[in-house]
Amino acid sequence: MNREPNDSRQESFDRPGHWRHIELVDGPIDIAALTTRLGDPDVGAHGWFIGVTRRTTDQRITETLCYEAHREMAVSELQRLAEQAAEKFSLRQVIIVHRLGPVPVGQASIVVGCCSPHRVETFAALPWMMDVLKQDVPIWKQETYVDGSQQWVHPTDD
After folding, report:
1. pTM, 2 dp
2. Tens-of-pLDDT digits for all 158 residues of the chain?
3. Left, alpha or beta for 59 (phi > 0: left; psi -120 to 50: alpha)?
4. Boundaries of every domain in the chain
5. Helix (H, G, I), strand (E, B), or coil: what is residue 104?
6. Which family, according to the similarity comment (predicted)?
7. What is the number of other CB atoms lying within 10 angstroms of the CB of residue 151?
8. What are the residues facing 78 on neighbouring strands?
């Protein structure tokens, strides 16, 4: 995991085998390293969502996305989200890593991972977590297009 001076990280353990890893990073997300973090011999399902910057939005060519956040509030809300998801979907482990600053086309801005004893809970948890994250967490996105124009994007526009 790329650790920059402004990175924010929080881990919590509520009982053996149950933990949450929340992190805001200012550089590329090390997805391979994150995939090794989930592991519990009593779970049968691991699920991941990786959000990347796409090249086009509404037929406009994107150069980069730039994310800003209120760090302390964002980490607190992400931790709350992870705890709610763990309770709602019987998740053993939850990882949420969000990149801040510029994110070029093809690179990841968000990685959400979770595991549970059964696939149904894992499959249901990922879209729920992303929907709540976009609605409740104070992270903002500005899109810059190749023509130099910029636009702040509302979470429901995605």
Report:
1. 0.89
2. 444 445 576 666 555 567 899 999 999 999 999 999 988 888 999 999 999 999 998 899 999 999 999 999 999 999 999 999 999 999 999 999 999 999 999 999 999 999 999 999 999 999 999 999 999 999 999 999 999 999 999 876 66
3. left
4. 19-145
5. strand
6. Belongs to the MoaE family.
7. 14
8. none
